Automatic annotation (TrEMBL):
It holds the Pfam family GMC_oxred_N. This is GMC family oxidoreductase. Keywords: FAD, Flavoprotein, Oxidoreductase. It comes from Speluncibacter jeojiensis. Belongs to the GMC oxidoreductase family. GO terms for molecular function: flavin adenine dinucleotide binding; oxidoreductase activity, acting on CH-OH group of donors. It comes from the Bacteria. Residues 81-279 form the Glucose-methanol-choline oxidoreductase N-terminal domain. Residues 389-502 form the Glucose-methanol-choline oxidoreductase C-terminal domain.
């Protein structure tokens, strides 16, 4: 791997090497730029570091201290934050749906949220390219803008068969995919072996993550990935207002990596924390925070799960967790008492997670053992509900400091009435599907997934931290290329959209159109 010295002025340094950071790094390295990524976590070796074991996978998650508050505080860590090269793509389930065209204009169409300053058409070519690079496997997709995937769908397991059977009986359309999991060999990656440990890193590398897709290509084209580096502040020239580099800690020492352009890709907690911690005479309230927008409009998706018990064995763990899905309920239905919608997918909690779900319902002792003895008879569905952006849902800094001496972030989160109605509706639909498929018992688990927002895109500095090309309004050579820029979130997993936005930003940087 090529390496640079901190005093070398790079063309671009990116903080974070997950979905957005690694995509940006790869695109610019291919264009001949001198680029490096600063990653707080390690450089994972799938063969050595990952295990087929739920209990042994905790190192994949960002578990540094964080505080939570609000009427509906969101647990942080295992299901929404990653550490190390690849970021959250290392432990995401591999589900890669696109946003719908409607997602970019929900304020105009539905009177909620906010419109994006760009359109679906801006991301379409990048969606298509990323789907080829991962690659994405699935049925032809009928929802949103109908499209096809480069690889055929995976075989359907027992869990998927349950969903398809119940959906068919209710007149609901369900399709296989889309997942970023190889169906057949792809380069040096093998066919998926359907072992069910997608959320534990995928030891065989059948599931895509930027660790095994975009980072190796970036390194081959001269990029550096500098691990074990904790960014503490973006350095600003107080005279010009331009970014000059990034301060970071490594092995107990502080360094300044100089760069012509800086990009932040730390995701929806760490990106606001870094900006808020980057204070100066020019930015006393935090970098890019003149309009009190940094850290605001953080969103999660309602992600309830409903399990159904069947007389026959299902063995839901066999196959990719997001195997079959439906977006029939994605768009606003004017007959319903809520706006926007939800999607439904198969999910496959492994035994430890399933035991936690069962115990949370009050089952303990002999009752818990009875449920766990029946584990192979259970199927499980999960929903992604589009919770709305609210300014009071935010990340701020506390007086407590972590092991790096940095302020510990506080995430405050409260649901609105629309969020609650939407989640109840999704739970009812999943119960109906499982019962139509023949379930003799059901169990509902309230939960949340994903993080986006906190440095959102807007039409101008009064409404957003970054513009339609992810460049900050306040600092002309500072970019943000992670999920924090999403103004709204739809009912789709965010990974593909984050990568597409980063690819769009890279395209503009390489072409020079960022100066327009």
């Amino acid at each position: 791997m090529r390496t640079f010295a901190p005093e070398d002025e790079l063309d671009l340094v990116v903080i974070g090497c997950g979905a957005g950071g690694a995509t940006l790094l790869q695109r610019l390295a291919r264009a001949g730029w001198r680029v490096a990524a600063l990653e707080a976590g390690p450089f994972w070796d799938p063969e050595q570091d990952w295990v087929s074991d739920e209990a042994g996978s905790g190192d994949l998650y960002w578990t540094d201290p964080r505080q939570i508050d609000g009427s509906d505080p969101v647990p942080l860590g295992a299901n929404n934050s990653g550490t190390g090269v690849g970021g959250s793509t290392v432990h995401f389930a591999g589900f890669v749906p696109r946003l719908h065209p409607s997602d970019f204009h929900i304020a105009s169409a539905d009177g909620v949220g906010v419109d994006w300053p760009l359109d679906y058409a801006d991301l379409r070519p990048h969606y298509e390219q990323i789907e080829r690079e991962l690659p994405a496997s699935g049925d032809p997709w009928p929802w949103g803008e109908p499209h096809r995937y480069p690889h055929r769908p995976h075989p359907v397991s027992g869990n998927g068969e349950v969903f398809l059977r119940g959906a068919d009986r209710l007149g609901i359309t369900a399709k296989v995919g889309p997942v970023a999991i190889t169906n057949g060999r792809f380069g040096n990656r093998p066919h998926c072996i359907y072992r069910g440990y997608c959320l534990q890193g995928c030891k065989v590398n059948a599931k895509a993550s930027t660790l095994i897709t975009h980072v190796p290509d970036a390194l081959a084209h001269g990029a550096e990935v500098r691990t074990g580096t904790m960014a503490t502040a973006v350095e600003i020239d107080q005279r010009t207002g331009r970014a000059t580099g990034v301060r970071y800690l490594r092995d107990g020492r502080e360094y300044l990596q100089r760069a012509r352009i800086v990009a932040v890709a730390g995701y929806s907690i760490e990106t606001p924390r870094l900006l808020l911690n980057s204070t100066s005479a020019r930015f006393p309230d935090g970098l890019c925070n003149d309009h009190d927008l940094v850290g605001r409009y953080v969103m999660v998706q309602g992600a309830p799960q409903v399990g159904g018990r069947f007389d026959a064995e299902v063995r839901m763990y066999k196959g990719p967790p997001p195997e079959v899905s439906s977006e029939d309920f994605y768009e606003t239905d004017p007959t319903k008492p809520y706006r926007r919608g939800y999607s439904i997918q198969t999910v496959s909690p492994l035994p430890i997670t399933w035991a936690e779900h069962v115990a949370a319902q009050g089952h303990w002792g002999a009752d818990l053992r009875r449920y766990m003895n029946d584990y192979v008879h259970w199927a499980c569905l999960g929903a992604l509900c589009e919770f709305l952006p609210l300014p009071e849902n935010r990340v701020t800094l506390t007086d407590e400091t972590d092991r790096h001496g940095l302020p510990v972030p506080l995430m405050t989160y409260s649901q609105c009435d629309n969020d609650r109605k939407l989640m109840r509706a999704a739970e009812t639909t999943m119960q109906d599907i499982l019962q139509a498929a023949g379930a003799t018992d059901t169990m509902t688990i309230d939960r949340f997934a994903h993080l986006v927002g906190g440095a959102r895109m807007g039409a101008g500095p009064a409404t957003g931290v970054v513009d339609r090309r992810c460049r900050t309004f306040a600092v002309p050579n500072l970019y943000i290329t992670d999920g924090s820029v999403l103004p709204t979130q739809g009912s789709a997993n965010p990974a593909l959209t984050i990568m597409a936005l980063a690819a769009l930003t890279a395209q503009d940087l390489v072409s020079g159109s960022e100066h327009d």
